[in-house]
Design a protein that fits this description.
With 365 residues, the protein is mainly beta. The protein has two helices and 22 strands. The protein folds into two domains: 21-58 and 232-362, Jelly Rolls (Sandwich), CATH 2.60.120.10; 66-229, Jelly Rolls. The strands form four sheets. The chain has a seven-stranded antiparallel β-sheet. A six-stranded antiparallel β-sheet has the order 3-20-19-21-17-16, with no helix packed on it.
Amino acid sequence: MYFKKGRFSRQAHVDLPEGTVEEEYAREGFFGRTSHLYRTEAPVGWVDIEGDLRPHAFETERLPGLGVADYVEGRVPFLQNADCELSMAHISEPMDYDFRNADGDETLFVHVGEGRIDTDFGPLEYEAGDYLVIPRGTAYRLIPSEKTALYVIETTGAIGIPERGIIGNHALFDPGVINVPEPAPRNLEGDRFRLKIKRGGKITTVTYPHDPFNVVGWKGDLTVWQLNIRDIRPILSEKYHLPPTAHVTFTAPNVVICTFLPRGLETGDPGALRVPFYHANIDYDEVLFYHDGDFFSREGIDAGMVTFHPQGLPHGPHPKAIEAAKTKERTDEVAVMVDTRNPLEMTAKALEVERKDYWKSWMTE
């Protein structure tokens, strides 16, 4: 069943009725039933919000506890639920133990720095812009060659690549660009080697008389992945603003990871929206980690910051972004979005680095 009432646009996101703004009201993360509401005022034109649904912004590079010498202890969570935990970690010195997460998969996004990651499957050299996907139960050790800042996405479910349907298996990125490790000896000195295992949030330390990374060969389809953002090729449309789901990079049960990269704006139709449309993605919380570039749709946002928009409250571009987009032809931003089906909770440390007035940035009076 499909209904049309009142004044509306013939094509979503194009040629809006004069004097209106468009809000996309959607289920299932833009995959389910959808309606477009044409309002006379933006749904973000509030003058006050009281309660938990206020939009939040965090200066995550200032989280208390970042930079602790111990990598595991120095990972600082700021948002979490039963399906995932989002943390930041700074590491400057090589880890003096190996680490295995038995609670879930880890996706490490390298925000700053470079170095090497040793794994059960072998080593990989990493750099800024890398995703390092580490399956649950895989041991690894980080050896930074320069200070490294990591955005850590831990999921209880397995990380995978989304179904791509009619656009084909080689869209967004060809699976052939994913790097995987090859076994290589570490030649570590000493006669005791520690492996720390996280299970149920607690740490168990196992000590071996030999290097536990003693794999000389492997085969299979479960391993560590490395994908750099330069190998992701965004889907573009000159005449239609695509939903965030067009930029999905990885998925896990109840969690979606998207990568927003520099791309051409909708210059093929003068009536097409060039900025993210107002939307009420009411089944998902939305978290954006800002990695690099000019974040023109969000005022006052710097690299390394995170915004958090809980489900239930519409959101969209800031007023100045709408005007700025009229003369822009390309975006110049890199951001990682995590959408979660179940509500996220802010940690106490997140509240310490929150920009308390972020929600006011949409206000025009």
